[in-house]
Amino acid sequence: MRWSFRGDDGQDLAVDRRKHMVEQQIRQRGIVDERVLKAMETVPREAFMPHDMQDLAYADGAMPIGRGQTISQPFVVAAMTEALQLEPGMRILEVGTGSGYQAAVLSEMGAEVYTIEFIPDLAREARARMEQLGYEHLHYMCGDGNLGWPEEAPFDGIIVTAAPPVLPGALGEQLKPGGRLVIPVGRVEQDLRVYRKNDDGSLERHTLFAVRFVPLVSQG
């Protein structure tokens, strides 16, 4: 049975689902940045799901979106976003547009988002979806995310929504000093890492927790 997002009394049920998601799946697990919580409560996650799966939009887990890709678990999206320490106006590179959900959350928080997707169909669909929903300050590219977006570098932050076996060197190079790079790394066993770039160009690494992402596709 398809999820009905409006009740008989006209109440927007999706709003209630989002509030419940934020309180039960995100806030109670330790996410404290109120801007992240507000963005997650605002972005209509169901709009980024396949039509036949919209009733599962607020389930506590990653969900398939087709072509072997997924929309990440809400808590993971929130944790990665919080780890960026995002401020309005920051230029953020996202590697792995997917459905566009993570980019929408970043845009909702006031970021200027540069998002790369390797799969052409997904890239086209995500752009059309986000334009229809009215998200602004988004720039799109279809290409190999391992290479980053050198023409627009450096970035205040970088977020990667698929897992390479090792950190792509180009991404570290395209990060501003003081910037943060949030990325899952590993083949079978993956961990979510946060890298901070020092003034001398070196990267400090902090590991958050174990994760399971789809592999980051490369042309190489």
Compressed to H and E, one letter per element, the order equals: HHEEHEHEHEEHEEE
Shape: globular
CATH topology-level name: Rossmann fold
The low-confidence runs, each spanning 5 or more residues with pLDDT under 50, are 1-11
The end-to-end span amounts to 43 Å
Q: What CATH architecture would you give?
A: 3-Layer(aba) Sandwich
- The spatial strand order of the largest sheet comes to 5-4-3-6-7-8-9
The count of β-strands is 9
Query: What is the CATH homologous superfamily assignment?
Result: Vaccinia Virus protein VP39
Q: What structural category characterises the helix and strand content?
A: alpha/beta
Q: What integer value in Å does the Rg equal? A: 17 Å
Can you walk through the features of this model?
The protein is α/β, with parallel strands linked by helices. The protein has a single domain, classed as Rossmann fold. Helix content is about 30%, strand content about 25%. It contains 6 helices and 9 strands; from the N terminus they run ααββαβαβαββαβββ. The protein has helices at about 15-25, 35-40, 75-85, 100-110, 120-135, 170-175, and strands at about 65, 70, 90-95, 110-115, 140, 155-160, 175-185, 190-195, 205-210. It has a 7-stranded mixed beta sheet. It has a two-stranded antiparallel ribbon with strand order 1-2. The radius of gyration is 17 Å and the shape is globular. The relative contact order is 0.12.
